[in-house]
Amino acid sequence: MITFLSDxxxxxxxxxxxxxxxxxxxxxxxxALGEVIAEKSGVLNLGVEGMMAVGAMTGYWAGIQxxxxxxxxxxxxxxxxxxxxxxxxxxxxLGADQVVSGLALTILGLGLAAFLxxxxxxxAPGAKFDDLSLGALSExxxxxxxxxxxxxxxxxxxxxxxxxxxxxxxxxxxxxLRAVGESAATxxxxxxxxxxxxxxxxxxxxxxxxxxxxYLTLKITPSWNESIVGGLGWxxxxxxxxxxxxxxxxxxxxxxxxxLIAVGPRFQTRRCNGDEITNCxxxxxxxxxxxxxxxxxxxxxxxxxxxRSRNRPSVAPAAxxxxxxxxxx
Amino acid sequence: MFxxxxxxxxxxxxxxxxxxxxxxxxxxxxxxAVLLVVAxxxxxxxxxxxxxxxxxxxxxxxxxxxxxxxxxxxxLAVAVAGSMGLWNIxxxxxxxxxxxxxxxxARIGPDLAGPVLIPLMIIAAVFGxxxxxxxxxxxxxxxxxxxIITTLMLNEVAIRMVRYLVNGPWKDPTSIGFPVAPxxxxxxxxxTLFERANIGVLIAAAVLLVFGYFAARSKWxxxxxxxxxxxxxxxxxxxxxxxxxxxxxxxxGAIAGMVxxxxxxxxxxxxxxxxxxxxxxxxxxxxxxxxxxxxxAAVAIAFxxxxxxxxxxxxxxxxxxxAEILQALVLLGALGAAVFTTYRLDRTSASSNASEGAxx
Lengths: 329, 360
Description:
The complex is a heterodimer of chains A (329) and B (360). By secondary structure, chain A is mainly α. Chain A has a single domain, classed as ABC transporter involved in vitamin B12 uptake, BtuC, CATH 1.10.3470. Chain A has 13 helices and no strands. The N and C termini of chain A lie far apart (62 Å). The mean pLDDT of chain A is 89. Chain B has 360 residues and is mostly helical. Chain B has a domain at 67-297. In chain B, the strands form two sheets. A two-stranded antiparallel ribbon of chain B has the order 1-4. In chain B, strand 2 (192-194) and strand 3 (197-198) form a beta hairpin. The longest helix of chain B has 30 residues, at 114-143. The radius of gyration of chain B is 22 Å and the shape is globular. The interface between A and B is large, with 46 and 51 residues.
C-alpha cells in the first residue's frame, strides 16, 4: 500500500504523464464536441472512428504536402466534414437508419484511410504542432511545463468548447439546433429547417472529428498507419454520454479518459531501468487492462444514469436516432 | 428547393429490396472503379480477377462459402435482435468472446479426440458470446439502458481482453519476438466438406434454416415481430417484453459467439484480429437483408465473394481494404436506394415551389 502511494506520487510528478494526459484530452475533447453537436440535432453518428481515421490520414498527407500543421489540420477538417455529409445525406435527407449509416461510415472511413494512406506508412511527418511557450507562465512549477506549455491546438480546443457551449445555449442557432433534436415536428411547424440544420450539424461534427484525427498524426504519434485510431473514436462516442451532452462535462470526461490513456503504460516496472530510484514505479498493472476502463466506465455511467432518470426526464436529446419526414407528422 | 420531393408510395415497390441491393452493388462498383483508376489500376481487370477468385472454380466457390459462414452467422445474430427492433452492435466482441471460450476448452482438453473437442469448443464459444451479451441484455431489459452503446463498448473491452491473453497468460513461451498464443491442437480443425470449404458451411446453413423457419412460422417468431413493431401491442397480447428482450439479446450474442468457435476451426491459433471485422460486416449484412434470415444467407455469399476477391487482388498491389470499402459502399448505396422502394420522386408543382421560396 505504501509503495502504491509512493507510486502515485511518482506518477503525479511525471511531466510526461501530464503532457500525454493533456494531448489525449484535447483529442478526445475535439472529437466528442463534434459528436455533441451532431447528437444535439438528433443525429447519432457512429462514424467517429472512421471519420477520425480519414482525418488522421488526410492531415498527415496534407502535412507532408504543405509543411504547415495549420494548413494540414484545416484540410483534414474540411475533408472530414465532406465525408460526414455522406452520413447526413443517407440518414437525414434519405431517412435511412442512423445506426446502420453511421457504422457504414466507420467501415468506409477505416477502409478508405487504409487504401489511400498505403504509401504514407513509410513516410516521415512533414509538419508537427510544437509546444507553445507562454513566457513566464511556462516557467511556473507544475502547471508551467504541462498546461502552459501545451501546443496551440489545446487553446483552440478550449476556445471551440466555449464557443460550442455559447452557441448551443445562448444563441438563436443553438435554440434551433436543440429544437430540431428534441422534436423535429415541432421545430418544423415553427419554421425551423429540420433537414438543413441536421446536415450542417453533422458536417460540423465531422469537421471536429477531422481536427481530432489530424491532431493525432500531427502531434501525438506523429506517424500514420491504418490501425492508428485504435478505438479512440468509440471513446469519443462514449464521452458524449459520459458528459451528458454538455461541453463542460465532456471536457472533464476527456481529461479523465485522457488520463487513463496516459497512466496505462506507466505502471510497468520495466520503466525503472536506468531511472533514479525516487522516480520509479514499483507496482505492476497491465496497461491493456487499464485501457479497458474508459469503455467499462461508460457502461457504468449509462447504468447509473438510467437508474437515476427513472424519476426525471432523460438528458439525451429526445429525437436522437429518429429520421424525420414531413408527411409522417 | 430542387423542384423534386419524396412522396410516400401507396404500396411499397415489390422486390424493392433486391433492387436496392443491386443498385447499392452498382454504386459501390462504380465508386470502387474510380478509386482503382486513381490508384493506377484497371478496374475491369481487377474486378474480373475478383470475380474469378470468388466464383471461377469449385475451389473458388469453396473459399467464398468459407467466408460466407461468419458473415451469415454474424448477420443472423444482428438480424435476430433486429427483428425485435434491438441493435446488437457487439457481435464483433461476442465473436472474440466465443473464440476465447473455445480456445480455453482446447487448452484444458488438448488430447480430446476431434469429434469430442470440436463440439465442445463450439458449445463453449456459444456460451462465451452469450455471456458477453448478458450484461447489455439485463441492463436493457430491466433498466432500459440503450443496448447500442453498451454492446459497442464491450467490443473494445473484448478486443483488449484477447490482446491481454495473447500478450500475457496465453503467450506461447516458445515464441520469439511477436507474442502469439500457442497453436491449437491439430484435431480441432473443422473437417473438410469439399475443396477448401469445411463443415462450418453446413453448420451455418443449418442454423440459418432453423432460425428462418422459427422466425417465419413459430409463435416465438410471431411474438418477436409483434414486439418489434409495437411495444404496446405486445404488452396487450400478454408478451413479456422484459423476458423477450433478455432472451433475444442473449441469443443474438450466442449466435455471434458461435462464429468465434467456427473461426477457431479454420485457424491455427487465436489471434488479436480473430474477429476480423466480421461482427461489423454482420450489421451491414443484416441491414441489407432487412433482418430476414433468407436474405442474410444471400447477402453473406455476395459479401463473402467480395472478401475473397479483395484478398485475391492483394498480389496486384491493390490494398485488401478495397473489400471493406466496397462493402460499406454497397450498404450506403442500398440504404439510399431503399428509400425509393417506399417513396417516389415527384416534381413539385410550381405553386408549392413558390411558397417554399417565400418561406426561405
